[in-house]
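In practice, a research group might receive sequence data for several interacting partners and want a quick structural hypothesis before committing to experiments. The following worked case mirrors that situation: the sequences arrive first, and a predicted assembly follows.
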Amino acid sequence: MKPMRSAAQPYTLAAVALAAGWQVAATALNTEALPGPASVLVSFARQVRGPLGIHFAVSAYRVLVSLALALVTAVPWGIAMGRMRRTDALLSPLVYLIYPIPKIAFLPLVLLLFGIGDGSRIFLIAFILFFQILVTTRDAAREIPREYILSMRSLGAGRLQKAFHLVLPAVLPKILTSLRIGIGTAIAVLFFVESFATSTGLGYFILDAWSRLDYESMYAGIVGMGLLGAVLYEFVEVLDRTLCRWTKI
Amino acid sequence: MIRLEKIIVTYRTDAGIHEALAGVDLAIERGTSCVIIGPTGCGKTSLLYLLAGLLEPASGQVILDGRPLSGVRRQTSLILQQHGLFPWKNALANASLGLGIRGAAREKVMGTTRTLMEKMGIWDVRRSYPAQLSGGQRQRVAIARSLATDPDLLLMDEPFSALDAMTRESLQELFLGLWKERSFTSVLVTHSIEEAAFLGNRIVVLSPRPGRVLGILENPEMGDPRYRLSESFHLMCSGIRRLMEGSR
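A structural hypothesis for the assembly, expressed as tokens:
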């Protein structure tokens, strides 16, 4: 009902504005490296039912699995660190040491451990997202008001019930925020991990088109990446609207 | 029957260890309504957390029905100052939470919660979240949640202090009715003299921090909603005020 309309309208507007700006830039620069939106859209429409669609699906699969993997590993650890002082004291320094290191630097090791298939690509994206979600979840779990904790304890809740009725719902809005930030990161990393030793994915598609100087296809691939991001963002919005309704009042 | 014996509660700040309660002795009879009154920061909330099993005394002990209290007890309900409702649960989910956590059957949870919410006039707002409710409605949800588990001991921390005068009085009367009907033991903490006189069989006056018992007043005429308008009510209020002022 409502969500579809409310999402579609602003997107049409944004797409029109983007296309207009793009057209202006393309006309002004007048270079093969930036074709106008019309020819790119034609190229996109022509290829999306063929190879581009498949590359899109492969990329979507890689990002989704990475996001899911990062979520199910980072959220429990984040909650444990946020709610248990000793766990936090033990693990936080470790996290702070590893967090700032560009994980891409571990690529040779990752390739050695997970091979040159999807495993190492997914691992690398998930590895990077893990820390973003971990730190956000930990801080959110730490900030749960004492009043809620006491209230839950006085109701006689056990550990699992506390996690389910109190901690998870309290940190969920922040987790979704970390997901929104994470999606941008994930797609940036996706492009990188699809730039070597593969012949699938949007990253490969873009670089391959570039090497053939097929700029229309290259931008069609970039449009695909943009769409992939938008779909993921909208998915998080739907989660937000259904799971965190209480924050919207 | 609850006995507090030589209770000392301490808390730690950067400046060192302080006493919140400095040797409190108190007996609360089963089925009575005990009101604890004292100035802000006199340790009355500590006293309540102690009775709830959320806090351990530095020394002394709490004896409940002949046994030392250790930890949270199933038959005790606690209503916190800010109601302790969870913002992500609607009124119905909040009110039914205590029973649900105890693993009661779904029909029983829903039946009991519905009866209570209807009685308290909040069934119609059951789908609303706490942020959408008025202060009085939130307090009603909190009371419904605490009574749904049919406690024998109800602890309340300044439950009506954040409400406007008319809402406060109607909730005090509602509470009085529930207490008379269900005969649980009630321990209510407040800084309002009128509330103490209206709701307490016995009124325990605490000194400023560190809290000690300054005096205990028996209040035999409480229990009638019209008590508020009587001469003896005002005499009781004056009595409480004199005790509190004497400590300054």
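Before designing any experiment, note the following. The two ends of chain B are 32 Å apart (CA to CA). Chain B has a mean pLDDT of 91.
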